[in-house]
Design goal:
Elements (H helix, E strand, L loop, with lengths): L10 H18 L10 H8 L5 H18 L3 H7 L15 H8 L5 H7 L3 H14 L2
Helix pairs in contact: 3-5, 3-7
Length: 133
């Protein structure tokens, strides 16, 4: 999970992360692939409420809050306020757009304003984790 704070998680990556998480649990619990256990049964045995994706999302949100409270190059990069432009290609997925949809916020600017107050930001992260994905 080193560096997961900067990942953008699309549907394909989300599916791969869920699959590898279930594979990890099966390996740790020593459940052979020949056993007729569904993924739900395996996850019920582990009694985990926080999934791998939720942990990644929380780390991303705390990282963005940390970056946005500082006034530096990282702040400019995450908001996209550098001069110049991109070529005529498909728009890249952005970390802030990903967090906006995860936290169920109306706009990216709402998130950027919330990052300035650490207590409000922590509450938003906690609420998003409680609601799940």
């Amino acid at each position: 999970m080193y560096g997961c704070e900067t990942w953008t998680i699309n549907k394909k990556t989300h599916g791969k992360l869920e699959a590898v998480e279930k594979w990890f649990w099966r390996r740790m619990l020593r459940i052979p692939w020949t056993a007729k256990k569904t993924n739900e049964e395996v996850l019920n045995e582990t009694e985990t409420t926080r999934s791998l994706i939720n942990r990644i999302r929380k780390r991303q949100a705390t990282f963005v809050g940390h970056i946005k409270r500082r006034e530096g190059l990282e702040n400019l990069l995450t908001t996209g306020k550098l001069e110049g432009g991109r070529g005529k290609v498909r728009q890249r997925e952005k970390l802030l757009d990903d967090l906006t949809s995860w936290m169920k916020a109306e706009r990216v600017t709402e998130l950027l304003l919330a990052t300035r107050d650490r207590d409000v930001w922590k509450d938003m992260i906690a609420n998003a984790l409680e609601q799940g994905i």
